[in-house]
Amino acid sequence: MSLQNIFNRKTAVLLLIIFGVLLAISPAGMRKATTLSPREVASSVINKSDHVTAEDLAALIIDKDPNLLIVDLRSAEEYNQFHIEGAINIPLSQLFEEESLEMLSPDYNIVVYSNGGTHSAQAWVLLKQMGIDCYTLLGGLNYWAEAIMNPEPPDDLAADSEILQYQFRKSASGYFKNGNITIEQDTRESTPPPAPKRTFKRKKKSGDEGC
Questions:
Q1: This prediction's pTM
Q2: At 34, phi and psi to the nearest 5?
């Protein structure tokens, strides 16, 4: 299944523009509301600055990035059945309660996800309107389960990039299932899996700054 099939960008752009317009008109109840124009919303989606891929997120978790905060937007029941390692559960219906917002510290690089891309896209727009920077997980938990937890090997005619991607996915799958990483090398290449494409800058904690 291709990324295009699981995350229709045209639909996402339209959805984000609609939410951006509604919130720009009525930011009532928003904490530290900001103005985010439909053009800015669409630009973020088109430039891919609104999301991280499953591979990016897996690498950040494996590297134990201290600034990473993963938020599962599904129900508590769904979260308890299965969730991404290290994720906290804040259902979308409770995301804007004061207790929930207190967890979304600006010290963190926040990644939100749901089963697919719709609810996390909604949350992204709403949080951005409040001045809270965050990213969505491209394809959501459905794609995470497919690409990271149960990766399919490429065929014999696959390009080297596909082989390297599969090697990383396979090693990441071993980490999340068994707590260890085993790199499977393809007989045609001796190159290790690629480094993550997306990295975050370390955010300063309040205690890092002098008086």
A1: 0.71
A2: -125, 165
Say how far apart CA 186 and CA 158 lie, in whole Å.
Answer: 11
Tokens 């394809």 sit on residue: 139
The answer to whether the beta carbons of residues 20 and 36 sit under 8 Å apart is: yes
Question: Band of the pLDDT at 159, cuts 50, 70, 90?
Answer: very high
pLDDT single digits (tens) 8-22: 455 444 454 544 544
User: What domains are defined for the chain?
Assistant: 8-144 (3.40.250.10), 153-198 (no CATH)
Model confidence pLDDT, tens digit, residues 37-59: 767 777 776 777 789 999 999 99
CB of 126 within 8 A of CB of 152? Answer: no
Give the model confidence (pLDDT) of 140-151 as tens digits: 999 999 999 999
